Amino acid sequence: MAMTSKAIEGTQASVAHVHEPRRGGCVVVLGTGGTISGKAGSARDNIGYSAGLVRVADLIDGVPGMDTLLAAGLRLEAEQIAQVDSKDMSHAVWRRVAERAAFHLARDEVDGIVVTHGTDTLEETAYLLQRVLAPNKPLVLTAAMRPASSSEADGPHNLRHAIELASLSGARGVLAVVAGTVWSGLEVRKVHPYRTDAFGAGDAGAIGYIEEGRLRRLRDWPAGEPLGLAVLAAEVWPEVQIVVSHGGADGRLVDLLLDAGVQGIVVACTGNGTIHDDLRSSLMRASHHGVAVLRALRHGAGVILPGTAEALPSAGGLTPAQARVELLLRLLADRSRA
């Protein structure tokens, strides 16, 4: 099946643009599993469920108002990429999602892509897809905080919003929509373990809001030059790990990683990118041995401000998980060029 919409762009309060879906185009929905496709033994159980049990085609059938969307000329296609709990997301699934998304985005008749995903690693997948593909069409990730079996399931409305967003004329880049809020794939991060509005974007804020089938956009779409799919072609990806600076930290874990042949380390830092002295010494030693090291903030907002004497480079405002993806992509790009 496939979907579309007609775009009417206007100005509201001189800062917001209102977009409506097109009519007669196509949206492809790629399923990867997650809570949105999870099931529990009781409709009252929102925690003790198994993720990745409901097929993406069945999720589409449960979207409220789908008959209306189809009657308006929307065409939807569904493709199952994986069925995993996103805590178990793998490099292989990332590569497969990127490949299939790129394939469908290249089709003239496709207006946009939706990826159903788990919430736990959504920020990593979104960041990777934007850096690799930076698409001129919308590539929208959506998820749920309640399983499909729940009497309070939020997945059906989130999926509808994602389909509406993917069909907008002029929309572009990797986006995420959860609980009616639209985030950039470069900035989105999970900020709560239970609430249905579980996402934020640090200091950046939302791109906009889905309201009655329309997008009220507050700022521009994600941008950037794509690294290209070739960067993911390696069969064996570099080993990149995350360590945390904290009270009582030392460098033993870094030394073990160095002995194990790690190629990149992200350190989740305190303060303005500060690192416990004992840990920092081991990280500097790893850097001198050719291991790529990147500093990230262990809290969810702000950026590492320049101007300190710190010799290790920073990831700016990226979360440690996003910084790991960034470092991984840099190493893959270096390998590809070599």
Automatic annotation (TrEMBL):
The active site is at 35, 35 (o-isoaspartyl threonine intermediate), 119. Substrate binds at residues 86, 119-120. Residues 27-216 form the L-asparaginase N-terminal domain. It comes from the Bacteria. It holds the Pfam family Asparaginase_C. InterPro entries: AsnASE_II, Asp/glu_Ase-like_sf, Asparaginase/glutaminase-like, Asparaginase/glutaminase_AS1, Asparaginase/glutaminase_AS2, Asparaginase_C, L-asparaginase_C, L-asparaginase_N. This is L-asparaginase. One of its GO terms (biological process) is asparagine metabolic process. Residues 240-333 form the Asparaginase/glutaminase C-terminal domain.
